[in-house]
Specification:
- By secondary structure, this protein is an alpha+beta fold.
- The protein has 15 helices and seven strands.
- Strands 4-1-6-5 form a four-stranded mixed sheet, sandwiched between helices. A three-stranded antiparallel sheet has the order 3-2-7, with no helix packed on it.
- A hairpin with a 4-residue loop joins strand 5 and strand 6 (300-309).
- Helix 1 crosses helix 12 and helix 3 crosses helix 4.
- Mean pLDDT is 92; it is low at 358-362.
Length: 362
């Protein structure tokens, strides 16, 4: 199919069936589109919508984001996953304030230079918000192109990705670029889906190579399978008599970077030894709870959980900017990894009277 015909077929479908009432489409400023595109990386629209609306209610402008503490940004992101996105978003806002006078840059090279923004995200923001002609290549677009043109191979391979970028560049029209890019994303999200694609309703069905060859479920090729490594940790849920919980801030980079989390130690360690070392006394009570499993993109983590009642006061655990006792009522406003928030929800009763340990030490 010639590029013009491809774009016209897609835009005609978009005019009749495209999504037009998503929160970031109602006022498509570069800031709002940028935040939405970062949230939508590896996350479905239905999940993103409430996070986006909550984020915009608290941080409605780029200036507000740049001025906000990282803790507030991480708290708003809590549960959305891939927390490096939030850290990069916050850092990029500060750089825009410092280097671009607080205005989102309009040159694609300047946008791509910001933390957490690659070629596709930069193109999406500038085309959807400002109408500039830039191709995009998110997961949905890769799937549409691979099927339409019969592109073999896993799109994560450099050669395959290069071929898809060349196709995307050639097909992107010079008019209605924002609508075209939105249409490509919509088509992949609603009809040309990974499972059970609705080919009968697809505007590109008549010329689709994958459909003609009966290869819709084979294209694009999946990432070569590999066994996820397994890791284990012991998480300590330390409580004092008031119900306060001891949390540690994670290092700024790596898994759950910058978030508050439970103290961790060797999975085979006796939690009572941890308590003696950190507080100078044996725990008043100790419970071991079933391990919970959380899967990251590159490993699976088994979290063994020990609920420990500390002596009368926090004892030897000195509060610092990296280690602090929080009341149960303060937990909702913290940036917490979703698995840790679930542990706290399940194991920290809201009534301090329910937390009183027995007088029997383990």
């Amino acid at each position: 199919m010639p590029p013009d015909a491809f774009a016209l077929a897609l835009l005609d479908w978009f005019d009749r069936h495209g999504r037009r009432d998503l929160p970031w489409q109602r006022e498509p400023t570069p800031y709002r589109v940028w935040v939405s595109e970062i949230m939508l990386q590896q996350t479905q629209v239905a999940v993103v919508v409430p996070y986006f609306e909550r984020f915009m209610a608290r941080l409605p402008t780029l200036a507000a984001l740049a001025a906000a503490p990282l803790d507030e940004v991480l708290a708003l992101w809590s549960g959305l996953g891939y927390y490096a996105r939030a850290r990069h978003l916050h850092r990029a806002a500060a750089l825009i304030r410092e280097c671009h006078g607080g205005a989102f840059p309009a040159a694609i090279a300047q946008v791509e230079a910001l933390p957490g923004i690659g070629r596709s995200t930069a193109g999406a923001v500038l085309s959807l918000a400002l109408g500039q002609r830039h191709p995009i290549l998110d997961g949905n677009v890769k799937r549409v192109l691979a099927r339409s043109f019969g592109i073999d191979g896993w799109p994560g391979q450099a050669a395959v990705q290069g071929e898809l970028w060349r196709l995307a560049e050639r097909l992107t029209p010079h008019a209605r670029v924002g609508d075209y890019n939105q249409a490509m994303m919509d088509l992949g999200a609603t009809l040309c889906t990974r499972a059970r694609p609705a080919c009968a309703r697809c505007p590109l069905a008549d010329t689709c190579t994958a459909r003609r060859q009966g290869r819709q479920m084979q294209l694009p090729e999946a990432k070569p399978a590999r066994r996820l490594p397994e890791r284990a940790t012991l998480m300590i849920l330390a409580l004092d008599r008031t119900g306060a919980v001891l949390l540690e801030r994670r290092p700024p980079t790596g898994i759950w970077g910058g978030l508050w989390s439970l103290p961790e130690t060797d999975p085979h360690r006796d939690p009572a030894d941890w308590c003696r070392e950190r507080t100078g006394a044996a725990p008043l009570r100790l419970e071991i709870h079933p391990a919970r499993r959380h899967t990251f993109s590159h490993f699976a983590l088994a979290m063994r959980i020990a609920r420990v009642w500390t002596p009368d006061a926090p004892g030897g655990v000195a509060e610092t900017d990296r280690e602090t006792w929080f009341s149960p009522g303060a937990l909702a406003d913290l940036g917490l990894p979703a698995p840790v928030r679930n542990i706290l929800t399940d194991l920290v009763p809201s009534d301090p009277d329910l937390l009183q340990p027995s007088e029997n030490t383990p």
